[in-house]
Amino acid sequence: MTQITDIKSRLIYNSRGSETIEVEVSIDNIIGIASSPAGASVGKFEAVAFRNTNCKDTVEYLNEYKSHLIGADASDIYDVRDILRKIDGTTNYSSIGGSAAYAISLASVNAAAKYLNKQIYELLLDGSPIQMPLPLGNVLGGRVMHLMDMCAAMSACKHARTAVVTASVDQLDFLAPVKMGDIMILKSSVNYTGKSSMEVGVRIESENPKTGSIYHTSSAYLTFVSLNDNGKPQGVPMVNPETEVEIRRFYEGEERYNQRRDRIKRDKKNN
After folding, report:
1. Could you report the per-residue pLDDT of 86-96, keeping only the tens digit for each?
2. Which of 96, 113, 243, 271 has the fewest CB atoms nearer than 10 Å to its CB?
3. Are the CB atoms for 23 and 97 separated by under 8 Å?
4. How far is the first Cα of the chain from the last one, in angstroms, to the nearest whole number?
5. What single-letter DSSP state applies at residue 130?
6. Using the 8-state DSSP alphabet, how is residue 214 labeled?
7. Residue 98's closest CA among 162, 158, 43, 177?
8. 141-270: CATH superfamily
9. Where are the alpha helices (DSSP H) in 7-97?
């Protein structure tokens, strides 16, 4: 019913003046047209765009093998794909050109949709229910890091009573995703102080507003430096841990402080 009856191809130029291929697929008197994008990406795992890296060769070669596609079901994108792969015989379309395979596939389904008086998406759905594409629905990690930095800076600024700058992020663990719509709970505390620096621990929890369930999503240790009015480092008050948890955090922070100091010394020496 939707068998391909003819295929034509031509060389065209895109908006950047680059050569690419345009294909017409006919089902009787119904024609579907598609062109392949001529992108600049040439990753080693990508399909080869043109036969012999030449668009003209790709167009000319299509005329040689198009007879293998005559009679194929244009509405069956998998059938068209399998025929193209068999003709090509490579893993990256270097024989027929990935641009030709792309344009033929899209022109075929375009022609079939017109022939059946359907939209392309209706043809591809093949009776499946329509569903809107959804992302993972997670808050981006970069956004979480930004909120962590802001929360930690508030604790450092409050402790030093000065302006502070972020000096390093020594450890950042994403333990679970924060879902869109969840309530983010950020907690931070100054664990350890050096002469002008402060280590701040940050813990993020996520609460589902519907169920009330709370789970730990991420943790980090950030180091801040206190600055005077001239933008130079200045001393900060010592931390006076009182509870068992505060004491543990203090000594763990001191250990990370020493490790960080030694690492910086090694890096300076090596450079």
Report:
1. 999 999 999 99
2. 271
3. no
4. 71
5. P
6. E
7. 43
8. Hotdog Thioesterase (3.10.129.10)
9. 55-65, 77-88
- For 142, the 3-state DSSP assignment is helix
Give the side-chain half-sphere CA count within 13 A for 238. Answer: 4
pTM above 0.70, yes or no: no
Q: What percent of the chain has pLDDT over 90?
A: 74
Query: Which tokens is 40 given?
Result: 């600049």
Residues of the chain with CATH 3.30.390.10: 6-125
164: amino acid identity, one letter: V
Cα distance between residue 209 and residue 71, in whole Å: 57
Q: How far apart are CA 193 and CA 155, in angstroms?
A: 12
Rg (CA), the chain: 31
As beta bridge partners, residue 227 has: 163, 233
Query: Could you tell me whether strands 197-207 and 214-227 are parallel, antiparallel, or unpaired per DSSP bridges?
Result: antiparallel
* DSSP-derived secondary structure for 173-208: EE-SPPBTTPEEEEEEEEEEE-SSEEEEEEEEEEE-
> Structure tokens of 231?
């933008």
CATH 3.10.129.10 in the chain, residue ranges:
141-270
Stretch 183-212: mean pLDDT, rounded? 94
The CATH label, of 3.30.390.10, 3.30.300.30, 3.60.10.10, 3.10.20.30, for the domain at 6-125 is: 3.30.390.10
Spatial CA neighbour of 175 closest among 134, 153, 137, 203: 203
Pairing status of strand 19-27 against strand 197-207: unpaired
